[in-house]
Structure formats: structure tokens, C-alpha cells
């Protein structure tokens, strides 16, 4: 009985969480119409490909008595310049007149989204080809699957760059909007932010919540550096309005210079793994703030990824991760000057790292005047600011609840201790005097 109930429990996600899937064109070598398994009635199909038009024109999809070539599917756009896709049923078949040798060299991919996604007018599929501006400023809810088309020409890019490039930049996000990027492909829980599977797929979020010295804080970043992905797909959720640019351009991320002092962004793996650096813009010395990262990994075997966060002077934090890591956080109560990512070898696997840095203003230390009386035990230093607006080198504002923990004792603290000790000695002397005169 227990085994039966356990089996039913395992089947529940499969029944209620249908998932989008990707199929490579190189796997469909049959010249006769062949069913594509796992297609649900009411699904929608999209194509991402840079294969030659002649080859795509020889591949035919058929469903419900209607047929369409992949070339027709690729070139069918709506008024906004987005692919329309094609609604299909479980009877979908595919056939090709290309030779088997030619088919095995095709690099395109078919994306199938579930009937739930197909019915959602705010669920978009965007192949990253050339550059496109997505303006969803008036939208309340948006889900996007970004698809990378295999890059045939690798001229001018390093060997470790790979062939799939998705670049998202110029993200305009007003306060009140939440943005998230996710790995893999979405399932039917894509709108449920509390679903465990959805949480484990998230690799980037703004606002970002993290722990500093055991205290949870949440920061909304107005500056998001360009995000570069080397996978064939990544998906995105926006709750509220936003605007962004997406393209298939490649920019080497082994050296990133942040665009502001208070900032967030990502440093992710490329096809090959190389030492990478994020250099944070500085507002000057002796500043308060926070810094850190959230890292998710799928590393091969004994491969490791080292992450070293450096601050002013000797401040530093080094962490080693291996295997599968989901949303591991590292946060410090000081602003960073750099973050270095150090893979143990050239091909360690996949990693996504969201970095962040905040500047909360100059460090303030209260120094009592020698002409004034010593402060009483109840006095306290002026509170540190918890937010900043228009910091030097950082025109953007940040809302945060962090506070700076100074490692150096202040003069005021020493004075308080001396004053308290004097009071205690006076009390003891009085008690002894009274005792002797009893």
C-alpha cells in the first residue's frame, strides 16, 4: 500500500506539470512521415535555425490534415515581428527529402510548448537572431522563451565562446516590477513563483533577496549589466512592465566592468571554462555597502569552481563549489572591488552566477570632543544610512536595509566603557562605605 501511494505521489508532477521540449532537426532522418512522440493536442511548435532555406523547405510537418514546411514555419511572423508558431495535435508527423548525411548536419531545433502555454497570450517565444527591442511597458505579466540559433560563423570569437549566444541588455525595469531568468525550459508551473521546481530553476532575480550577517535583506537594482548566455535556450518572467533588447551578439564575459557602483549582473560559463573577472565600479574608499553573488552549478565529476570576492584592503571571501549547487548565496557587509571566478579545468560544466554590489554612503564614525563631557551609557552613535540616492559614480538609487559592521572600535565605544567602569567603581565604593558604617 505504501509503495502504491508513493508511486502515485511521484506521478502527480508528471500529470499536472506538462513541460515544453526541444527536438533537434538532426534526429529526424526518415523520408516517410514519422510521428513525433509526446506531442499534446493543442501544443504549439516553433523553429530556431540558421540552416539553409533549401534544406528547411524539404522538411514537412503534418497535423490534422494540414501541412507546413519548416521554411514556412521559420518565416511566419506576427505584426510585432515575433514568430507565430503553429498549433498542432498529437497526430503530428515529420518527413524529409534531405539525405541522411545532410540531415545529421542540421543545427536547427524545434520547440514545443504545452497547450497551457499556447493559450496564454502573454507567453512569447523569441529566437535571438539579429537585434530586437521588446517593449512590454504596459504588460502586467510576461513569459518569454529565448532561443539561440546555432552560429555557423565563429570568426573573431575565442575558441571557448561556443556556438549559442543569447544577449539581453538595456533592461529598463521600473520599481514594482519583478524580473527573473530561469534555466532549462518552462513547465506548466511557470507562473507559480512559489513552486519548488520553479524556484530551483531560477538563476537571476531583481529585486534580489539575500542574507547578510544572518539578516535577510532585499535590494531593487536600477542598473542591470548586460546578460550573456551560452545555452540554446533560457526563459524569463516579468511581473509588471519592462523593456529590453535581445540579440545573438557575442561579447566575451571573461572580463566584465560593471556599469554602476550599485549594480547586479551575471557571469556565466561559456562553452569552455576560463578564469573570469568582474570589476566593480568604485565610489571611493571607506564606504558602506554589501556585495556577493548567487551561484547555481551543474559541474562534471570532480570539477570545481572557485569564487573570490575582494573588497577594500585585505577584505576577501573565497568559496569552492562542485557538483550540483542550487542558488548558493554568499553575501558580505562590505562593498566589493572585484569578483573572480576560477574553474578547475577547461570544461567544468555549467554555472550561472548573479553578482551584486551596493553602495550605502561613507562610513561615519562619531568622535567626542575633548572639551565636552564624556557621553553617558545611554548615548549612541548616529545611525548609519540604510539607503542611498545619487552616490558618486552611481546615478541610480537602491533600496536596502543593510548596515555596515565596522571592524575597528570607535573612540565613542572606548569612552562609554571607561565611563561605565568609573560608575561601577563608585557604586562599589559606596556599598563598602555603607557596610563599614553599619
Automatic annotation (TrEMBL):
Q: Where is this region: Disordered?
A: 366-409
Q: Which UniProt keywords apply?
A: Signal
Record's signal peptide: 1-17
A GO biological process held by the record: innate immune response
Q: Give the top-rank taxon of the lineage listed in the UniProt record for this protein.
A: Eukaryota
Q: Which GO terms describe its cellular component?
A: membrane raft
List the InterPro entries hit by this protein, alphabetically: Glycoprotein
Q: What is this protein called?
A: Uncharacterized protein
Which PANTHER family does this one have? CUB_2 DOMAIN-CONTAINING PROTEIN-RELATED-RELATED, HYPHAL_REG_CWP DOMAIN-CONTAINING PROTEIN
Amino acid at each position: 500500500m505504501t509503495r502504491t501511494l508513493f508511486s502515485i505521489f511521484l506521478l502527480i508532477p508528471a500529470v499536472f506539470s506538462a513541460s515544453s521540449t526541444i527536438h533537434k532537426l538532426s534526429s529526424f532522418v526518415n523520408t516517410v512521415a514519422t510521428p513525433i512522440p509526446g506531442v499534446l493536442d493543442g501544443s504549439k511548435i516553433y523553429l530556431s535555425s540558421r540552416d539553409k532555406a533549401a534544406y528547411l523547405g524539404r522538411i514537412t510537418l503534418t497535423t490534422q490534415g494540414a501541412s507546413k514546411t519548416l521554411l514556412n514555419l521559420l518565416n511566419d511572423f506576427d505584426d510585432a515581428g515575433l514568430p507565430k508558431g503553429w498549433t498542432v495535435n498529437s497526430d503530428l508527423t515529420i518527413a524529409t527529402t534531405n539525405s541522411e548525411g545532410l540531415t545529421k548536419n542540421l543545427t536547427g531545433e524545434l520547440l514545443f510548448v504545452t497547450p497551457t502555454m499556447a493559450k496564454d497570450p502573454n507567453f512569447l517565444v523569441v529566437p535571438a537572431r539579429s537585434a530586437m527591442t521588446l517593449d512590454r511597458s504596459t504588460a502586467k505579466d510576461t513569459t518569454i522563451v529565448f532561443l539561440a540559433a546555432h552560429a555557423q560563423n565563429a570568426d573573431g570569437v575565442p575558441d571557448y565562446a561556443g556556438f549559442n549566444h543569447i544577449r539581453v541588455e538595456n533592461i529598463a525595469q521600473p520599481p514594482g516590477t519583478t524580473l527573473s531568468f530561469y534555466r532549462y525550459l518552462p513547465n506548466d508551473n511557470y507562473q507559480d513563483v512559489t513552486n519548488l521546481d520553479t524556484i530551483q530553476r531560477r538563476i537571476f532575480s531583481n529585486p534580489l533577496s539575500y542574507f547578510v550577517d544572518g539578516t535577510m535583506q532585499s535590494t531593487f537594482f536600477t542598473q542591470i549589466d548586460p546578460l550573456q548566455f551560452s545555452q540554446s535556450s533560457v526563459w524569463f518572467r516579468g511581473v509588471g512592465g519592462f523593456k529590453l533588447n535581445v540579440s545573438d551578439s557575442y561579447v566575451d564575459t571573461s572580463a566584465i566592468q560593471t556599469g554602476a557602483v550599485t549594480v547586479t549582473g551575471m557571469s556565466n560559463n561559456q562553452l569552455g571554462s576560463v578564469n573570469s573577472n568582474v570589476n566593480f565600479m568604485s565610489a571611493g574608499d571607506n564606504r558602506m555597502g554589501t556585495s556577493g553573488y548567487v551561484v547555481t552549478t551543474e559541474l562534471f565529476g570532480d570539477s570545481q569552481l572557485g569564487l573570490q570576492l575582494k573588497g577594500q584592503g585585505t577584505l576577501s571571501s573565497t568559496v569552492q563549489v562542485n557538483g550540483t549547487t542550487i542558488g548558493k548565496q554568499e553575501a558580505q557587509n562590505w562593498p566589493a572591488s572585484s569578483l573572480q571566478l576560477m574553474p578547475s579545468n577547461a570544461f567544468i560544466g555549467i554555472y550561472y552566477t548573479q553578482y551584486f554590489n551596493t553602495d550605502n554612503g561613507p562610513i561615519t564614525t562619531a568622535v567626542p570632543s575633548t572639551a565636552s563631557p564624556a557621553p553617558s551609557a545611554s548615548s549612541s552613535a548616529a545611525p548609519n544610512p540604510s539607503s542611498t540616492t545619487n552616490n558618486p559614480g552611481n546615478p541610480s538609487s537602491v533600496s536596502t536595509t543593510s548596515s555596515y559592521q565596522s571592524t575597528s572600535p570607535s573612540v565613542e565605544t572606548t569612552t562609554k566603557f571607561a565611563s561605565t567602569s568609573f560608575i561601577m567603581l563608585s557604586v562599589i565604593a559606596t556599598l563598602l562605605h555603607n557596610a563599614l558604617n553599619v
